[in-house]
What does this fold into?
Amino acid sequence: MNLLNTFFNIPILIDTFPLLLSGLLVTLEIGVTSIIAGLIGGLFLALIRLYGPGPVPFLAKIYIDIFRSIPLLVLLIVVYYALPFVGIRFSPFVSAVVALTLVSSAYTAEIFRAGIEAIPHGQFEASQALGLSARHMMVDVILPQAIKIVIPPLTNNCINVLKDTALASVVAMPDLLKQATQAQALSANPTPLIGAALIYVALLWPLVSIVARLEKRFGREKRP
Amino acid sequence: MSPLIRISNLKKAYGIFTVLHGIDLDIAEGEVVCVIGPSGSGKSTLIRCINRLEAFSDDSSIVVDGVTVGPGKALAKVRAEVGMVFQSFNLFPHLTVLKNVMLAPMRVRGTKPAEAERKARELLARVGIETQAEKYPGKLSGGQQQRVAIARALAMEPKVMLFDEPTSSLDPEMVGEVLDVMKTLAGTGVTMVVVTHEMGFARQVADRVIFMDGGRIIEQGTPAEIFDNPKEERTRSFLRAVLEH
Ligand SMILES: Nc1ncnc2c1ncn2[C@@H]1O[C@H](COP(=O)(O)OP(=O)(O)OP(=O)(O)O)[C@@H](O)[C@H]1O
Ligand SMILES: [Mg+2]
It folds into this structure.
């Protein structure tokens, strides 16, 4: 009973719930913004890595490798605490979105690249032989087929981005984790933290099971 | 009259391995040319250079209908005028048969959807698959898929049609239906360059047969000249080998 009162104190949970929900909203704002920006940036990076002129593919590869190597927490702290020394000052929200997007676009680029490279060469040749421009070939022929392949790993990446938003609490962003730790301090009880953990699980569990189902479905589907 | 396709000194190498040793070849408008020869002789490479699916050496030149085939802007124009049919069909699996045929005219020529659809249905009827228009390519037999691929290429109203062993990946019972479509097409005056192992087709349809070996044109002439009275020993031994099977 004592344990329940400490870790799952219903009155405290009810009291702090609005605070947690406001934190969830911030988490979603950071997450969704970064996911969308990361998708756009990742597709762009994948295309210039595959088809860019001269040294561009190499530079894209360097970018991708660096941002897949750097720990997100380190990057976030650099963006928020180090850049001001050279006069670049971002709000906590922008810092979090910038750091998440830089990393997410690097992962997304590799996912898109693998998807495009999985399309049989004959699809490119048929498009070229018909006289389609590079843009139409991508938009009408290659990407619609690649999307099927990349949806499971992209969903996986979304999950990772949403989880990683929790790191934004270190730059004083009032996200779900930050609100929970504050509520814990105020109420001198860890229940809000448990509440936050449950909200994360409730948010991400459906996505996790969707990925599993997609992987099973696309895995079974025979490629033409 | 100047030829529709003029190939001069066409050279192509993969690293140190030379695939085409300076080919010269003129093809007239309306001509049906069949290219035969042993595996690895460079037949596919030759026709894939015509629409520059393969890049070739700088001192080579290919001119199609007055336009030089090279990297850059003019290439799009050449490709729009040159249709190609592949051994492995290469239909777009995510689009219906109808959309496969409609895509290029809409995107490259700016044809309106209604007009593109009318044209596509007409072409599908011509190759005998109008009833399959709403299906996806994966649901069709190989012979049907190849006929869709021919319709897709024809939708651009090309001046030249290139065929790279269009029946080689088909089950034997489907070879005839594709060859029939090609025979009809040859009768309409379209310029055709056909790489094929179907000697019967070449004999019956070709205006000219080209025999290649080792990246060179060894001999060329009318079907009667090549099949009944080959001059070169290599042509004779090749024909003996294929006709015995
Ligand atoms: N991408 C490549 N890299 C290296 N060598 C190649 C490549 N493509 C073709 N070749 C070589 O070039 C030569 C000519 O090939 P090509 O495909 O033009 O022959 P082909 O006459 O069409 O033969 P087949 O009847 O088997 O289709 C072959 O020896 C082949 O091995
Ligand atoms: Mg070949």
